[in-house]
Amino acid sequence: MSTEYPLEALLRPPVELWSALVAALGGGLAFLFPTLFMLTPGTAYGCGLLFFVIAIYRATEGWMIARYHRNLRQMSEYTLVAKDIPISYQRLFFGKGFRWEQKHTQRLRDTLRPWGLPYVEPKALYLWARRKEQEWENKPFFKHLAIFFSRRVWWNPLAPLPPVGGSPQLHAVELREEDIWMDLKERVGHILVLGTTRVGKTRLCEVLVSQDIRRGDVVILFDPKGDAELLKRMYVEAKRCGREKDFYMFHLGYPDISARYNAIGNFSRVTEVATRIATQIPSEGEALAFREFAWRFTNIIARALVALGRRPDYQQISQYVTNIEPLLQDYCRICLPKVDPDWLTHVKRYEMALTDSNTSPSMRGRSKYSIALVKYIKEKRYFDPVVDGLRSAFEYDKTYFDKLVATLMPLMEKLITGKTAELISPNYFDIHDPRPIFDWMQVIRKKAIVYVGLDALSDTLVSGAVGNSMFADLVSVAGQIYKFGAGYGIPDEVEMRKTMPTLSMHCDEFNEIIGDEFIPLLNKAGGAGVQVTAYTQTWSDIESRVRSVSKAGQVIGNFNTIIMMRVREYETAEILTKQLPLVEVASMMTVAGTHDVGMVGTGSEFSSVNQDRVSVLEAPMLTPADIVKLPKGQAFVLMEGAQLYKIRLPLIDSRCEAEMPESIEKVSEDMERRYTTSERWWLSGGVGNAE
Questions:
Q1: In 3D, which of 216, 183, 671, 277 has the Cα closest to residue 473?
Q2: Quick count: other Cβ atoms within 10 Å of Cβ 288?
Q3: CA 590, CA 325: separation in Å to the nearest integer?
Q4: How do the domains of the chain map onto residue ranges?
Q5: How big is the CA angle at 598 (ends 596 and 604), to the nearest 5 degrees?
Q6: Residue 633 backbone zone (phi > 0: left; psi -120 to 50: alpha; other: beta)
């Protein structure tokens, strides 16, 4: 398979085997019958040895050609026992493969030419076996032969290909595979995995998550659809590393056993509470003004709650947005005694003097006590930023106020309805609730492992709202870590700054949960050690979710590494192919012709010409059509700017795994029954190419 010539000519009979056979025969005769060649024994043995060396060399070349032909038609499995997944503290393991170069593009194009088809298309005997499988399926005696033909075992020469589809030639163009790694320094540039449904994205996620957990990273996985294999893989790997006590499962579909989380309960500045909520409200057109009003009222409530020593949560925000009077009364009951010990007496006097005639129309229907409280604050000219904000919100006309916060209420309804409210608005003082409560800063400091199941198949809107809340909280925490370090505010701050943990975040089906909060997480959180791996089907899913082509471009611009599996959308495939250079592809043209000599007395009446001309043209290194033909479990990886690799993903053999707690076992079993999205295609066949 030398590349010293313009054309490799790999699609041809392995003629080297014939010369190897002749050389071996000559060597054998020289050893056995030296007198046949009239040679002395010493000379005959030397010649025989030389013949054997030539035979071995030519047989090796012929075997490489034959092996190349075999792999163009066949695929073999690539599985790894979970505990044998390679782990490195400097690099990230993807699978087996090779670096894609010009010669591989040349070989792939050769398989499409007419002379290459006999080496690519299935043989007649193989096609006959596939027909007989179907014809004999229900026949009494022959059905056993059909079963024999359909078995994928090494001793069956007519075994069918595994049910992975695609073209085996994409990986068969290179016989020398090696483990493919990526430098972990490039990981902070984020990884984007693109692939249509059921081609192995989640299985790749298992491989990457396993390495991150064993490496000791903080691992957060967002799983909108609910994949039982992912949940089990995370717990098993956590237990394998002795980190099971730091494992949290947050799942909207199983609130009774889920951990609890307050997305707005931890912040470095109180304004972050309003920002995290308001960023989930639409901001296009006229909705922008209503979003600003919603931010202001949410901020007023959050400031008052913090001043009262309460931890904000969604239930309290929703309660006081619709009725701010109780909050106004509670805050005044705390702050007014500090400036006037007799404040309550004055307020009571104002309350007794109130009538419908001396009450403004906008205040009618309100509590007289609250109206008197506001009147007292105004007349005493008492100024407090929190009181002033509560008072201004209270004085709005109720009808007008409801219109201003109309955009906020649908979001709050999504977050406080049903048992979801118990998970994202936890009661910190309920000592009888055994479900743990976590926040992102706590997770980072403990180097914990978090599985977030958003149950998007049951309720897409709620899962998106909760996911966006978590992303907004993560952005805030990342900003705090970037400025002050993970140990800010605790005794071991200096030591924790020296050992700032790496946060590996995996977002499966991230088109279900991406929003405006996700973009700053990509382009700003890298300095805080956040490294994102996102998985989705097509790029159109992202554009439709963010509702802006420019925002979608902003998202793709923050992923430095792209893993492209089989996709069905042309534009998605072009995300990879447009970044690749053009390469020179050679083709051979046969020229033959005859013509008259036209001269008398030359002794010849015509001449002929036979030529093989090699022409070179520029062609794309890969085309979108090549991406569409990828088998399941295979991918192209573009990393470190311009290095393109073709890889096979390992399938994890999960037998003999560690036992799981009864709660997680029940959840995973129920998820397997309810959610049918787990890719299990490899159970009936493997992927990859024969060695």
A1: 277
A2: 12
A3: 91
A4: 16-71, 265-431
A5: 70
A6: left
* Sequence-ordered alpha helix ranges (H) in 382-487: 385-395, 398-404, 408-416, 420-424, 440-446, 460-484
* Pairing verdict, β 218-223 and 437-438: unpaired
Give dist(CA 442, CA 460) in Å, integer: 28
Q: Give backbone dihedrals phi and psi of 95, rounded to 5 degrees, phi first.
A: 160, -160
pTM of the model: 0.85
Determine the Cα–Cα distance for residues 282 and 516; give it in Å rounded to an integer.
10
- 633 residue type, one letter: G
431-469 per-position pLDDT tens digit = 888 899 998 888 998 899 999 988 877 777 788 778 888
Cβ atoms of 506 and 193 closer than 8 Å:
no
- How far is the C-alpha of 83 from the C-alpha of 688, rounded, in Å? 21
Count helices and strands in the chain by DSSP H and E runs: 28, 17
- Reported as a single tens digit per residue, the pLDDT across 59-98 is 999 999 999 998 898 887 788 888 889 999 999 999 999 9
Distance CA 87, CA 530 (A): 20
DSSP run (H or E) holding 223: strand 218-223
Rounded to 5 degrees, φ, ψ at 454 are -100, -5
Is 229:202 a contact under the CB 8 Å cutoff?
A: yes
Q: How many CA atoms lie within 13 A of 339 on its CB side?
A: 13
Q: Are 166 and 198 in contact (CB under 8 A)?
A: no
Residues near 330 by beta carbon (within 8 Å), at least 6 away in sequence: 304, 308
Listed in sequence order, the DSSP H helices in 163-253 are: 169-172, 201-215, 228-240
Beta pairing, strands 178-183 & 191-194:
unpaired
* Bridge partners, residue 250, by sequence: 452
Of 81-85, 118-122, 278-282, the range with the lowest mean pLDDT is 278-282
pLDDT value, residue 368: 86
The candidate with the shortest Cα–Cα distance to 175, out of 277, 89, 64, is 64
Please report which helix (H) or strand (E) contains residue 564, including its range: strand 561-564
pLDDT-based confidence at residue 308 (cuts at 50, 70, 90): very high
Length of the chain: 691
Yes or no: say if 219 and 209 are a contact pair by the CB < 8 Å rule: yes
Amino acid letter, residue 39: L
Where do we find the tokens 């590393």?
241
Q: How many whole angstroms from its chain centre is CA 42?
A: 67
**Is 469 within 8 Å of 263 (Cβ atoms)?**
yes
Asked if pLDDT for residue 689 goes beyond 50, the answer is no
**14: amino acid identity, one letter:** P
Residue 105, CA atoms < 13 Å, CB-side half-sphere: 22
pLDDT (tens digit per residue) in 625-655: 999 999 988 999 999 777 999 999 998 876 6
DSSP state letters, 258-284: --EE-TTS--SSTHHHHHHHHTTS--S
Helical H runs in 216-270? Answer: 228-240
Please tell me what DSSP assigns to residue 176: -
